[in-house]
Model the fold of this input.
Amino acid sequence: MSVNCSKILSEKFRSMGMCVARNWSYFIMIPLFLSILLATGLQRWRENNDLKYLFAPLNARHSKEEVTIEKLFPMDLSSNANMERMNRIPCLAIVLVTAKDQGSVLREDLYDEILQLDGIVRNVTVTRVTDLKYKDICAKNNMKCFENSILLLKDQVRGMQKGNYSIKYPLDKEKIFDLHLNSLFLGGVRVDEKNNVISAKALKLFYYLNDKTSYNNDIAYEWQRKFLDTLTRTSFRFIHVDKYTSISVKEELGKIMHRMLPRLQFATIAILLFSIATSLHNNWIESKPWIGLIALLSGGMALASSFGFILYLGVPFIASSGSIPFLILGKYEYNTYQCLVE
Done:
């Protein structure tokens, strides 16, 4: 049975080969024309690196439930923002501060620079009709921005160094209703037997933004980009600053393709040379360098036409698709090499 099947397939492939040989111009011009036609879709290039779009189906259950919770528990980020009630990833910027000497951040000279850092962040400005700073675009509760209460302890930090004051961890209570959740802001904490903070390796600050409407979201997006640029250019004497925002992952995903494009041309040349080299033999009659070149050209045409067709359908390009050209070209060259070996 298997012998008959093999014989039938052999005959079919023989007939197909003869058809291609007799009508070679059609099999060259038509694919070339279609590839050029479909490749014009690349002019509609657009990217979408939103994490929810990348990892969650459009009609997923959690998306529907998120909308339901939003209706049942509405929250106005411009007046009664409460981060504990957020049913989605908040729009925020985070600053992580560590000491350059790897010591505790709860020292007076370092704390002065932390307060200076907070002032720099609050003065990051976005220009629309007027200049908008953090206080103008933050998520507000009782008409006030979220407060990093750890920054109110400057005098207490001075007292800690002198042994006159102590900070409780993880929760500090000064009065009956005056609670400070220090575990939210301090990391790498060492405490004594009474839960008094001895030292802390890191301090974290939060800056929540109002992204309720598309207009607010655009402003918050621009502010976060300026926030990242500003802190990248800023340096301090005693502290080291790491930063993160809601758009950090999105921005990094967007940079992946731009980093890969310059390398793509070198990868193409390397694959071309490799495919030609593996098609050569000691005998020039058996050498077929053009097969390697044609395989590479065929893979390039397939990539251009498929990407163009998808973009014509309105599907955006995503960062993870940037690896497809390397996978397809590699597969084409592997198949070519296998055919030559056999």
